[in-house]
């Protein structure tokens, strides 16, 4: 049994046969390693989730669908960077944010974004001036 410190974890041993069971069932999967283990909740206070408050910032955003993989993130960041350079925008080129809004279990209608932080004044008007903003659910 593998427990990922305070993290809801999944372990899948790829075989022709796989059984599913809660990893707290100690006798489940003892006769074979071909099973899927999952933990529903963490039972300790050792969580590895951190809340990091950052100052307000302005960002240039490019939205895209599909799965967020390293190569799609890189491709979308390069596309946004090229468009910003063409527009004469000043932005921090040293890093970008990759933002995913969906559960890994959601297959269709996924929403991802890449962000570059604006330096100086943005080259376009604020989107909050043009439309009413609402939280993404």
Question: Helix tally?
Answer: 2
CATH class membership of the largest domain: Alpha Beta
Number of separate strands: 6
Residue share in β-strands: 15-25%
> Domains counted in the coordinates: how many?
2
Assembly classification: single chain
Mean model confidence by pLDDT: 71
What is the overall silhouette? globular
Give the neighbour order of strands across the main sheet: 1-3-2
Order of helices and strands: EEEEHEEH
The helix content is 10-25%
Which consecutive residue ranges, at least 5 long each, have pLDDT under 50?
A: 1-37, 129-137
The major sheet is characterized as: 3 strands, mixed
N-C termini distance:
35 Å
Structure characterization notes:
With 137 residues, this protein is α+β, with helices and mostly antiparallel strands. The protein folds into 2 domains: 1-42, no CATH class; 59-130, Regulatory factor, effector binding domain (Multidrug-efflux Transporter 1 Regulator Bmrr, Chain A, Alpha-Beta Barrel). 15% of the residues lie in helices and 20% in strands. The protein has 2 helices and 6 strands; from the N terminus they run ββββαββα. The chain has helices at residues 70-86, 127-130, and strands spanning 10-12, 19-22, 35-38, 59-64, 97-100, 112-117. The strands form 2 sheets. A 3-stranded mixed sheet has the order 1-3-2, with no helix packed on it. This is Heme-binding protein 2. Pfam families: SOUL. GO terms for molecular function: heme binding. Residues 1-18 form the signal peptide.
